[in-house]
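Hey,

The postdoc asked me to send both predictions to you directly instead of through the lab channel. I've kept everything plain text so nothing gets mangled by the mail client. Protein one:
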Amino acid sequence: MNAGDIPGLVQAGDRRALARVISWVENGDPRTRSVLRDLKPPATASRVIGLTGAPGAGKSTVTSALVRAFRARGATTAVLAVDPSSPFTGGALLGDRIRMQEHATDDGVFIRSMGSRGQLGGLAAATPQSIRVLAAAGFEVILVETVGVGQAEVEIASAADSTVLLVVPGMGDSIQAAKAGVLEVADVLVVNKADRPDTQATLRDLRAAVALAPGEWKPPIVPTVATAGDGVEDLVAALDKHDAWLDASGERARRRLARARDEVTALAFGVVARRLTVPDELAARVADGSSDPLTAAEELLAAAGFAMD
């Protein structure tokens, strides 16, 4: 497989080429630049759906159920499953490909686990570019499953068209969502494991929180028991309704503009960060108190040709 052939192979949906390019993206390989430059925009934009929630909420099970539902429609589907990183290899510690074995032989499905590599916010730093690669490969639906997130880790909202927030009865998730603002990033709320005794209380709490939510779109609340497939059709219907609203309201264009801006900014910051090496002498002056960190930062930026506001 020659490097020059890879963009064409990616756009033809070649699985080996896809896996190779995403590995390059994850590892910061310089060949990524030429591949991304040569990829043509897809004829039809992909639907990017993010799934987030606390550990144990059943994200992988719901993701697998959504793959099954979209494949039943004939839609090619890709999954980016962001897992905690191995402390030894930096790779994904918990491979979601293992948890989604039922789709392993389906040529219309591509599943990739990627390690978070210490990145905060529930996503890997390579996620936005990996989404771009999968979109160029023509996948109609791209599902992005985050690591188990907490109250402030809501980065998925900037990467997806529709964000699904999973909560579980009895885990206090609904209260945490309401008080921490996580609810603000949810386009659809899923109460998974809805066969538990506390389900009605959780639904009641979430309905009260949604009623107070600002904005035109009020997140629908969908109870599911994903292990049994219960409620999955309702979840897909809620996602379809949100997808239609994105176009009707103009919100999709706004979100994609913001996503592009964030991606460009992150790449530019990455280049700047690699070029800014703090000299030992400058760090020593801050450490011994002869200089303050702000002044030292101004000196560092000035030496690199940047002005600090």
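Protein two:
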Amino acid sequence: MSLEYSPIVLDSINHDNFPKVELFVRLDGKYTLYKPEQTKLTIHNIERLRENGTEFVYINSKDSEEVQEHVEKRLDDSRAASLLSQYSKNLICSQMIIKAVDDVFKKPNQPAVFEKCRAILRKAEFRFEDRDELIALFAKLENNFDKYLINHSTQTTILALFMGERLFSAGRDDLVSVGTGAMVHDIGMLSVSSDITDKVDVLSENEYYRVKLHPKYGIDLLNSAGVTDRIVHDITLGHHERYDGSGYPRGLDGFEIPRYAMLVSICDIYCALTMNRPYKSASTPAEALRTMKSERKLFDPDTLAGFLGIMEDTALPETMEEVKEAPAAARSIDMAEIRELKKQMRSPNADRNKLVKIHSIVTDNINSTYGEERAALTELRTELKNLLKSLFSETGGSNGKG
């Protein structure tokens, strides 16, 4: 029987009191023993791993409880925390949430695992300079934590915390409740047969009916564990409700849908679209936002506008007021628009002013475009720069001769 391995953020480890467990590194997809159980971890081991660009090491999953306790103490140590970059803190907090979500899905009838979620959220502190840092963190998590439902719930949680603070100026207590609700929003899927949840083909009508009951199953599990937080219940029961009344399980519409349930539903959909699943490849962030805009009738207009205002711009506003007051954000550009820009640029009638205008359009929108479109825009910008440089050079030469 092969062992199951759990990734650990290297910066979450304190070599002085790291538990006596086996430590592994992953090379070419294979796990190689780095430190035997009884061998003490040293600062030189840590530094050597860092020099090699290692961000994650691995432990046997049987040791995860002991190591998680070590990680939490590491983050609680103010001196140690002051030495960590915010990037490392974001990774460590993500790791702690992943472990807490995993525990909830393994032991959904135990009240202690839900209280653990709240305890983790009270000490978790995420900070992002811009939207790109948030997207990069999600990519890092998907590349290193391979359980889809756990990873998805974690990304939804981080995004909901981030948006709850900026769009609604939510206080710490509300954020803990929103985060807990996001962590457990899909817990009802435990009551849906694995034959359905693991299916890669289109679900039958009966199978889809069973899936649509998972919010109600989730409430049953929360009640059995003694979880009574209203916001957690609202999110668990309402994260598939839609603004136009087409959602489930109750078919609520408009302002009948609790605002935090609507917020988590938006975060839930974005994270689902941008993650790889057995039956569907991930969309790029730009593609996901385009999809959500095309289905804007499903969402509260103000909440969606605030979400898009942040996720389409690299500069992160601090409050919803800044989102509303900000000038129109740059947008993602699709391949058809890029081809049209290229056609205009290569037209014999394109003068210098036209090329400058095209260059401005490309520059303004390149940071909000992803995937092959961004690569095409980058190539187009380089071609434009060379063309403009040539034109300005010719103009300067001509003036010099006069």
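Summary for protein two, as requested: The first helix runs from residue 43 to 51.

Thanks,
C.
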